[in-house]
Amino acid sequence: MLRELFLLPTHVYRFAISPFTHGSCLYRPTCSSYMLQAVRLHGVIKGSILGIARIGRCTHIWYYGGDDPVPETYSWDAVKSGYIIFKKPRKKKKNEETEHTSHSDSLR
């Protein structure tokens, strides 16, 4: 009962706001579904940590998205892993490429 009360804002978001965002979530399940599943599976505190971390990853700038189910067991590695798995590779700047080649040339 307390969990469902805690999840009330998520339910409100899903039915009042989400229809107007036209599927903007990068992941499957959506971030709101993920939050519901995480809190129901792991409890309010651990589920919220997982859900908030997931929402933090749902940016179109740094992450690809894709299948990202709620982990069966909670751990800090589960919280951090999504940031590593789904991260877009950083593009090298032109300065970094020239510095790297000049440094490797000096080692020869």
Distance separating the two termini: 68 Å
Beta percentage is under 5%
Helix share of residues? 55-70%
Q: Tell me about the biggest sheet?
A: 2 strands, parallel
What would the average pLDDT be, to the nearest integer?
83
Strand count: 2
Outline type: globular
Low-confidence stretches: none
Count of spatially separate domains:
1
Please work out how many helical segments DSSP would assign: 6
- Topology order in helix (H) and strand (E) letters: HHEHHEHH
Short description:
By secondary structure, this protein is mostly helical.
How does this structure look, described?
With 108 residues, this protein is mainly alpha-helical. It has one domain. α3 packs antiparallel against α4 and α4 runs parallel beside α5. It is globular and about 55 Å long.
Pick out its properties:
6 helices, 108 residues, 2 strands, two-stranded parallel ribbon, 60% helix, single chain, globular, mainly alpha
